[in-house]
């Protein structure tokens, strides 16, 4: 009994990678779900086999029917099981059975094969959905974002009470700049280090393990990329309606072939974790604390299961808001929301523009420009060689100096080629992070707008007998609370933005000045080799 | 009676310029020879009319038959008259008559129309043959080079006596570096200045006149481009077998649309004249002195006619050599000749390589690179504008600094775009001059090689009774003298080369260092606008 899956999106195979091209609407047969790294081996109707991204598929006739209910949102094979967790295809050697037993999941999850036919790439990409776009907002986000594909409507979450059994609160204070989060007295931070390639099952399955050391406990915990991915999913589910939860790093900015990939990924995971640590709400959440400070495998697994059962996710997060500030009316809320919407959109445009020219500049500085300086250098050196053959007495000063000038331009070529890694890299990475965050705002703004709309029509709802006057009042209070979270979040965003851009611009300009200074100095040294006329 | 001309080369009309496409072998009808600037209006067999370059045509059945005798060398309409002078198409309003009367020539020559339908381009190009290649060696050179298309064979010039009536001598001394020319005690120099657009015939004909002021008389003489061209032709005829006489400037190096053309041409004429002034043989020749120091129109015209009748041209120049140095045998001469041949060829390669990368670099520095810096600057400024709209208090320091950073990159864009004119320009011009000179050596070397061959077979010639033993001895002496001129010339070339490359490399590196220093300083100033973190 072979398992069938429907193709949700077109996928074009890359030659030589044992991939299979599939078209939206095709029905394919799943051959091997244990390939790992987001890939499944499948067979198409004409009998060809190859790897396809599991996120592009939807299992037909899955046991609990959950796949069906989410087809509008493009649910993937991995999301077909209950609880939105990431286990998806269980690691059974019987390819035609999917094991949905949650109790078995942890082990299976860790044991998925990540080596195999896709080699190094596969190790690198573990946990990252293949076919992700590189614009920072992965497909996974748009498929899984709670507010729009699952979870209560604006009406429901505006009226929902905070869970009785939860001690979680989302306090908003009024500070100098307006509504602000409650910042911890000692900021959380963590260091990611020591990436190690680990393998299981006699080397058949390999992956990278990172050490993460939080400044609070100073005790390292070990995580794989897919654990980060799990954390990301949890944070997105829980906070995504109120806070920008940027996607995890994928193959971005500088290209995977230009720097050591593992180092780059670690650097990017570090940036992502640092940003999460800096967020007062995220960093203090139990799921984030679990990730950083669990003491053993048992605590980690228990906490993980608990986090996956968290019900205060999506817009329900707003039920946790607590503030002493005066209630805002819908008009006021709408104005603020519009302002933030405009700001984040124009900043997104600005950041994209900078990234675009930055990438162009990167290519030029690492490609044609140094080649040209090298050619100039070589031309000087060649002339020097020719001149040396003249047999004319006493031109050693010139020929030596010409050689030095040639070497200088060859050195300049190297400087030019290496420079982007020293400055442009950080400018692009920072802007890339911001593009990731800014890409989250449309959804956040949208949750707010639908709440504003609901509150605006609450009079009509009362008249229609759908809600009581008390409900209406409660909805208005809830909307006000939502607005305070948005304002607190924007103020957090602004203060971070000012800090980050100040820092990265200084680093960029400092490095650029040093770079040009070095070239000027080199040229002067070369100049000094020539005889003064 | 319409004048017919045969088309020597294909010419493709440029759209919108009233030009006429013609094919080699076509017969066309000359309509108007008074267009000027190297152009003729013609009609093809299908009745279409338009401008064609006169150098591409050969008059059919010209009165004196001179055109016929030179058809192998591709003689042009302008060269169809006796004496190789540049009068060509006489300026008569009767289009069907060519006036070959030398007595009329001077006036006609100066009166050729250069304005008309081709506007500014026409003024610029006066005297330059249209369709010239831009590689520094114009078609005119290869067509007219004496040794190969006219003039005596190696045998003849090796035996020729110096003209009895000439007081010209070509003395070669032995200096520290070997054979050297006789250098004048005070080096000649001249300044070209004050280009003026002049017109005749009520503005119908216009041209540029330059003032040339030699340092010997300090008295300005006035010349048009075509006078320079005449001088070039005379020098080439007279010295071309012994010395490199580089072509006059044409549209080279930086492109005519990038800088003011007249200024550029004047600069290039200045370089050419400076180089000629620096040459001890050229600068002391009567034709060169005439050009620089004639006191009035009459002296100029008389001198001009005399120069055109000079018989010591082509390899006959070697009959003037005078040296006290010991006679060199053919083997020795051949070795030196081979060495110079190799050197000039490899220097030609080196210079071409530098010019090639220089042109590529020029394009990048004036095109995409500054555009990119401008985009970076704009991106910073845009971000600053967006940030200003945040409404978040206290970020003026950042937004102001970001604006300054943006402006800085816009200024860098300008610096980058302007820089080539300040340094690369001179590097390219110098190398261009050298390419022009180096392009003359193959012909010079070739004259020497054919003389060497003749001397080598002189024993056989004596046996065959073609020459006497006295002739053989004389030929060997003459060859030795030729070798001394080549050595003197190469030593002159080397000492100039060392001077020129020393100078231009220093200028280039100095300007480059200043350029990068300026950028570094600007970036540091921008950096200082940011708050220290």
TrEMBL record, chains A, B:
SMART domains reported in the protein's UniProt record: PX, SH3
Subcellular location(s) of the protein: Cytoplasmic vesicle membrane
Biological process annotations from GO: cleavage furrow formation; endocytosis; endosomal transport; mitotic cell cycle; plasma membrane tubulation; protein transport
Name of the molecule in the record: Sorting nexin-9-like
Compositional bias of kind Acidic residues: 101-113
Pfam families in UniProt: BAR_3_WASP_bdg, PX, SH3_9
UniProt binding sites for a 1,2-diacyl-sn-glycero-3-phospho-(1D-myo-inositol-4,5-bisphosphate): 224, 226, 265
GO molecular function: phosphatidylinositol binding
PROSITE patterns in alphabetical order: PX, SH3
Gene Ontology CC annotations of this record: cytoplasmic vesicle membrane; plasma membrane
Domain (SH3) ranges: 1-62
Ranges for domain PX: 188-298
InterPro entries: AH/BAR_dom_sf, PX_dom, PX_dom_sf, SH3-like_dom_sf, SH3_domain, Snx9_fam, Sorting_nexin_WASP-bd-dom
Similarity annotation: Belongs to the sorting nexin family.
Keyword annotations: Cytoplasmic vesicle, Membrane, Protein transport, SH3 domain, Transport
Chief place of localization: membrane
Residue segments, region Disordered: 101-137
Mode of membrane association: Peripheral membrane protein
């Amino acid at each position: 009994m072979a398992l069938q899956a429907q193709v949700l999106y077109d996928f074009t195979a890359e030659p030589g990678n044992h991939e299979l091209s599939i078209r939206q609407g095709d029905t394919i047969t799943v051959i091997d779900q244990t390939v790992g790294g987001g890939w499944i081996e499948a067979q198409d109707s004409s009998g060809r086999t190859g790897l396809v991204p599991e996120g592009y598929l939807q299992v037909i006739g899955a046991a609990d029917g959950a796949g069906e209910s989410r087809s509008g949102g493009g649910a993937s094979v991995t999301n077909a099981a209950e609880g939105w967790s990431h286990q998806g295809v269980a690691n059974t050697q019987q390819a035609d059975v999917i094991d949905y037993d949650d109790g078995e999941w942890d082990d299976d999850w860790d044991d998925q094969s990540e080596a195999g036919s896709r080699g190094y790439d596969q190790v690198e990409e573990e946990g990252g959905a293949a076919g992700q776009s590189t614009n920072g907002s992965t497909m996974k986000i748009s498929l899984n974002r709670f507010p729009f594909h699952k979870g209560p409507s604006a009406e429901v979450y505006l009226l929902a009470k905070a869970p009785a059994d939860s001690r979680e609160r989302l306090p908003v204070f009024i500070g100098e700049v307006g509504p602000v989060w409650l910042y911890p007295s000692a900021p959380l931070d963590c260091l990611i280090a020591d990436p190690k390639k680990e393998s299981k099952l006699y080397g058949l399955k390999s992956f990278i393990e990172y050490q993460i050391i939080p400044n609070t406990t100073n005790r390292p915990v070990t995580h794989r990329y897919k654990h980060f991915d799990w954390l990301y999913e949890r944070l997105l589910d829980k906070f995504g309606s109120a806070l920008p939860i940027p996607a995890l790093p994928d193959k971005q900015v500088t290209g995977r072939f230009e720097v050591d990939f593992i180092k780059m990924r670690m650097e990017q995971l570090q940036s992502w974790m640092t940003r999460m640590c800096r967020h007062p709400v995220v960093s203090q959440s139990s799921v984030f604390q679990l990730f950083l400070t669990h003491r053993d495998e048992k605590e980690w697994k228990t906490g993980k299961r608990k986090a996956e059962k968290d019900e205060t996710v999506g817009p329900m997060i707003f039920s946790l808001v607590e503030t002493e500030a005066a209630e805002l009316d819908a008009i006021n809320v709408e104005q603020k929301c519009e302002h933030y919407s405009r700001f984040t959109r124009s900043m997104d445009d600005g950041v994209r523009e900078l990234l675009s020219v930055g990438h162009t500049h990167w290519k030029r500085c690492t490609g044609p420009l140094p080649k040209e300086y090298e050619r100039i250098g070589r031309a000087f050196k060649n002339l020097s060689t020719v001149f040396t053959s003249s047999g004319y007495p006493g031109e050693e000063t010139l020929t030596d100096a010409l050689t030095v000038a040639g070497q200088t331009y060859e050195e300049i070529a190297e400087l030019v080629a290496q420079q982007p890694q020293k400055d442009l890299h950080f400018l692009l990475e920072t802007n890339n992070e911001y593009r990731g965050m800014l890409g989250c705002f449309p959804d956040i703004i949208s949750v707010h707008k639908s709440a504003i709309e609901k509150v605006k029509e609450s009079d009509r709802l009362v008249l229609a007998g759908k809600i009581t006057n008390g409900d209406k009042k409660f909805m208005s209070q809830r909307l006000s609370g939502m607005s305070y979270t948005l304002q607190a979040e924007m103020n957090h965003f602004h203060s971070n933005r000012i800090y980050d851009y100040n820092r990265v611009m200084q680093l960029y300009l400092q490095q650029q000045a040093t770079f040009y200074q070095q070239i000027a100095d080199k040229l002067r040294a070369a100049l000094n080799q020539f005889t003064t006329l």
